[in-house]
Amino acid sequence: MTFARTTLALLLALAASPALGQSQPKTVVELFTSQGCASCPPADALLTEIAKDPQVLALTLAVDYWDYVGWKDTLALHGHSLRQKAYADQRPDRKVFTPQVVVDGMLSAKGSDRAALQRALFAARSGGGLTVPVSVKRDGDAVEISLPESKAAADGADLWLCPVMRSQTVAIGRGENGGRNVTYSNVVRGWTRVAIWQGDARSYRVALKDVSRDGSDSVAVLVQTGSPTTPGPIIGAAFLPLGN
């Protein structure tokens, strides 16, 4: 067993099982993946494993640029392809590929490379990790998000609310993964830009009907510097299963 695999196993063993209430992660992992990518299923399985750690908000962002090879990804959003490209434009390597993970909006690694992902997670946490505590709760037919005063957003930060499916298994009919059943975890189904937060203590209320998508059963909240076209570091995050 490699050092990275052993370390990850210890992290998961030490992490308590996530409760049905809000989780306050210390790191955000975004996996850019595609049902039409033959090398993606191992990354999808690794993300499912990582998602068990309540200190990590692990999200699946399915992209659509492999649809031409014979299978249209049933979970893909074109905005995810744009987000991945926008991330790449901010980095010196400018690389876009699948499976690719981006950690805290800054660090890129191959999504199926356990050791590379573990290095990125440790680097992100060593650099301070997420510095803004985010509170999110369900209040009837709405979601309420609260943010404390913080100098980290003095120049403004986007507050995103994303409907999420915690688990979805897809029978892939054609293409490079034709005949396979692949399970995806924490699948992002949409993006709502709630506000441009200026670092003041604020609460925001969003009606569930405005953000719900078919199959979504949870919401993820991201606080990210920069802009949609020039995304910067993610400085805060939270995850909330919605229940019935």
Automatic annotation (TrEMBL):
PANTHER family: LIPOPROTEIN LIPID ATTACHMENT SITE-LIKE PROTEIN, PUTATIVE (DUF1223)-RELATED (PTHR36057:SF1), PTHR36057. The lineage of its organism: Bacteria, Pseudomonadati, Pseudomonadota, Alphaproteobacteria, Hyphomicrobiales. Keywords: Signal. It comes from the Bacteria. Residues 1-21 form the signal peptide. This is DUF1223 domain-containing protein. It holds the Pfam family DUF1223.
